[in-house]
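Memo to structure team: turn this sequence into structure tokens by end of day. - J.P.
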Amino acid sequence: MSAYSEIRRHSLAAIVPVICFAAIGYFCYHAIEGEHGINAYTRLTLQIQQTETALAAVTAERRILERRTGLLREDALDADMLEEQSRRVLGMIRPHDLVILGR
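Reply from structure team:
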């Protein structure tokens, strides 16, 4: 046998393993770095946690605002809340009130 046929025979036998290793490498890379890979999953998990934290803060603020506006409804009007809001909006004080200016 000639050297050329020997090299050709060995190279043909090596093609299948090389293709298999290339396919395995391709799928491993995309399993980690791909659009639906491990890194994308961790980024989405972190984004979900941040969004849930922001949602909790906004929900708490909404509850406070709902409670405060509930005090100003006609059927359950709170005199203190009405007075506080009217003083804040109109900027008026009573003659006996002590005014403390903040920074």
